[in-house]
Automatic annotation (TrEMBL), chain B:
Keyword list, A-Z: ATP-binding, Membrane, Nucleotide-binding, Transmembrane, Transmembrane helix
Membrane topology: Multi-pass membrane protein
Originating species: Oceanobacillus luteolus
ABC transporter domain span: 369-603
Transmembrane regions listed in the UniProt entry: 46-64, 84-102, 275-296, 302-320
Protein name: ABC transporter ATP-binding protein
CDD domains in UniProt: ABC_6TM_YknV_like (cd18545), ABCC_Glucan_exporter_like (cd03254)
Domain of life: Bacteria
Record's keyword annotation contains Magnesium: no
Location(s), subcellular: Cell membrane
PANTHER family, sorted: ATP-BINDING CASSETTE SUB-FAMILY B MEMBER 10, MITOCHONDRIAL, ATP-DEPENDENT PERMEASE MDL1, MITOCHONDRIAL
Statement: the UniProt record of this protein carries the keyword rRNA-binding: no
Amino acid sequence: MKTFKRLKEFYWPHKHYFLWSLFFLIILTCITVAYPIILQITIDEVVMQNQYELIIYISFIFFGLMLIKGISTFSFQYLSELFGMTSVYHLRNALYHKLQVLSFKYYDNSKTGDIMSRMTADVEGFRFFLSAGFAELIRIILLIGVSLSVMFYYSIPLAVVTMLAMPFLGMIVFRFDKQVHPAFRSVRKSFGKLNTRVQENISGMNTVKSLSREDFEIGRFSSSNDDYRQNYLNTAKLWAKYFPLMEFIGNIAVVSLLGFGGYLVITERLALGELVAFFSLVWYILGPLMNLGFVVNMFSQAKASGERLIEILDREEDILENEHAIDRPIKGHVTFKNVTLQYVEDDDAALKNISFDAPPGKVIGLIGATGSGKTSITQLITRFYEAEAGEVLVDGLHVSDYKLKTLRSHIGFVLQEPFLFSTSIRENIAYGRPEVTDEQVLAAAKRAQAHDFIMKLPKGYDTLLGERGMGLSGGQKQRIAIARALCIDPSILILDDATSAVDMETEFKIQSALKEVMNGRTSFIIAHRISSIKHADEILVLDKGEIKERGNHAELLELNGIYRRIYDIQYQDREEIMETVSH
Amino acid sequence: MSNAKVEKKSYLTRFHYTVEQVIEKPFNWKQMLRLLTYLKPYSKSYLPAAIIAMLVSMIVRLTVPVLIGKVAIDIAIFNKDTSLLTWLVVLIGVLYVLNYVANTLRIRWVNKLGQNVIYDLRHHLFSHVQRLSHRFFDNRSAGSILVRILNDINSLQELFTSGIINLLMDTLTLVGIMVILFVLSPQLAIAVLIVVPIMFYISTRLRRNIRRSWQEVRINQSRMNSHLNEGIQGMRITQSFSQENENAEFFDGVNKGYFHSFRNAAKKSAYFRPFVDISDAVGTIILIAFGSYLILKGEENGGIAIGTFVTFATFTGMFWEPISRLGQMYTQLLMAMASSERIFEFLDEQPNVKEKKNAHRFDEMEGHIVFDKVQFSYDNDRIALHDISLNIKAGETIALVGHTGSGKSTIANLISRFYDPTKGSVKIDGKNLLDVELASLREKISVVLQDTFIFSGTIMENIRFGRPNASDDEVMEAAKVVGADDFIKRLSNGYFTEVEERGNILSAGERQLLSFARALLANPRIIILDEATASIDTESEIKIQKALKRLLKGRTSIIIAHRLSTIREADKIFVLENGKILESGNHRSLLDKKGKYYELVKSQFTMLDAK
């Protein structure tokens, strides 16, 4: 119940839809039992009493009732759907907003697939419950109640006979429900496995073909395929066991009615029409009862879905904007004072005691092995994470003193993976500042050495990129990502291994262009290749979260430490080759 | 005054998602018959068994109302014959037991039939796709192939499981009811059956309308989901460019679009039931008005007995279910048409690289590769290789150097026979590749790609992919030789650590080492290596270079080279440009030549030193 209370703000404002739909539901259910009553009257009054003149009234009343029922059915169905979808529309927007503010930390620890399933399946599950679940439960109770009353009115002994079937049916429904859900889950699970199997096979097709492992792959696929079939058949076994049984119990009730009811009619303790009415009424009771399991299950599923949604909604936002956060232009002076960062509690610190000073105009190079903390340093400047200890200052103020938007809109960040959106190249470059002119987009693209290849595409800047920027090579994507960062005219530019897939010639051109743009601004360059950072004003050599060496290229070479070692490896053949080349 | 209003940029169109719209196709007999051939293996087992079980329960369902109306009411109750009534109760009870058994068997058999057919169809499609050549995969995204093997086949599941049997059952039930009603009372039958065509009309026409509006909903939904998926994956970019509010505006638009289409569809669907109810009411009114008139007229004057009336009442209540299901069935068939068309499109695809009927096994391979005036084009207008002739001796290491698109990878692809040359021939040990069995050729060639693909499973399984029958010791030995052993042992579960393609457990360098181990385990005669350009930190780089030496030892190696160190040590270097070989020779001789190679090397170093 706590779950539904927490989510109340999304559905309760639309309660009028729900209450009206309930109103129509009550009318609708009461009219449903009109059919057997009409049959009874026709047989007992019209036929048996020979009062054919009544038929005209009966017909009109019945038709009128059915018209009302039609209107009620429509209103009930439409309003209850409206209740569900309106609530969920607001819920979905709220979830989306929340996802926008959750920090990198959240995304580090969650899988896209998992968030997606919450945003789709769980939201849908909750909608379905709001639309159909509540109402269906009320409908079942109402229908059984009204039908039973009519039955008792007609004949108490016959009603008792019908009621005898109810506990049996209830028990079977309950048992079926208990078994069918685990079975369904394993069907879904085995389908998920089949899905992974095929997906990997197709994505890794080059590997499969080059090692000619097709038969091996077919073998592995067959076992997943068979597993899916087997699981599905196990579920089918449950259907085969329970569905006919439920129908059988209903049928036995009918037979008992015929035997006992027929006897009552013969002994004139029951009218024939009443017996006929019972044949319909019995299904009005047993039918909904078979559905009860479904409703109960829907309730527990909605609860589970709701909980998963609340997990997102109530997730603590660890990067909060200061109340007095300011909004003023940033020049780009970055200072770190004894900064320590820890991603996970009790884990080794990702950064230990980092200090440096980068005034505007300075280029800082960061180098070190994978996991040494290069990326972490830059992500503290944008406040994607928060330092545990020490101070991260921009223009002398704590990063947390700025409005997030102010801070980030002055920092051009090129992340390791060049993620592009499904829109035109122009929109992708203008992503950070959608209002820029075409000239500015072009200028950014030219500096990132992207203009030439973009112009060669059939639609130029209007070329639509598919999901994840398909159709472009890694180097092209990286260049667009650089253009995107330049387009916001940043005071601080961060290139995180941003040219790894770009060939040397192009990288050189990008570097010269950047030197020009970044004059008077601060740049951070993360790289593995010495050539990418050797011109930096200061190079920080990182190892396991600590700055092991610092200085410019020449100073670092003289230190004969880590930097020298990297240099030697990368330039091992340089001397010899330079010799031959300069012949 | 209104001029002062600043125009605000709208973000409602900032992203574009393409949504596959074809959900239905017109009915096509040829295609349907082709689908039905998949039933053939079961035409003597599950299929007839399920049909018999279905017939039994249908007969019971049709008999009981007649027994109740005509015998129980008209004879037993009317004549106050309690012993006949008892007998009837017993008889109907027995019939219901029979029905119960038949239902149980029907459900079981129908599912066995359906699941086996689906299994076969999926297996057929998957195996077929495995055999298709690179050209097929070049032109399609992984997603579109996946959708066919999984979703399209699944959408046929319903058709094969219950669809076909239900079609038969519903048609027979409807016909059965009509026949019984006509036998009982032709005049009342005609009057009551008027509603059947109305119901059919509602069930097909109205439903088509509803169906279309739900299609609209699905399109909106997949657009929304595409954005969600992209939005979550690109969240870091969004936050770093502080586009949160702008994206939220876009999302609100998509969400609203979904909401409106949903509301429209829900409204149309809500119209459906009342129409059915009212046509049902018309039927009932006809029945009670005309039926009671006929009863009062008396059986002897051409009227009917009360029992007939009760039977009619039961049967008219049974019309809707089969009609409704037949309407659904029709929708299902149209959807099946779209799915099966896509499935058959793949099944009709022939591999471009075909094995000759009399192809012979490549038993022992030395690894002497000869290209004789090879020309190749991926599509007709773009020639990728012009008149290439190469002679690579067994055991040699050669390097291919050149810009993207110069034809390096194409040469490598022709050696594994992923494609066939348009002109000229490729021979290994003097055997034309067109004449040998594909598997026996590729078993002896390992291709190590730039982007190593990691399958989900343990490290052990991933390395073993190179040779599935290798023992654990052999796998570990291979890992040791390439120097992958160190980092594997450091993982939480060593060789049994679970990894996956998108997992971040392995760095780029480590993945590369894994692929070396994989290739080594396969023990090929020829190794083709596409060197990585992606960023690998320097320490890993050293390991990779060491491993490479061990891997290439004693094998013919073709390296698409980026690192100077590898190039330098190659026995022969080929410099390619626009599909032609510009120059070839070893490092020294090429530098002395002062041609393109010299320029390439020189420009790299001058660039590094420029300040």
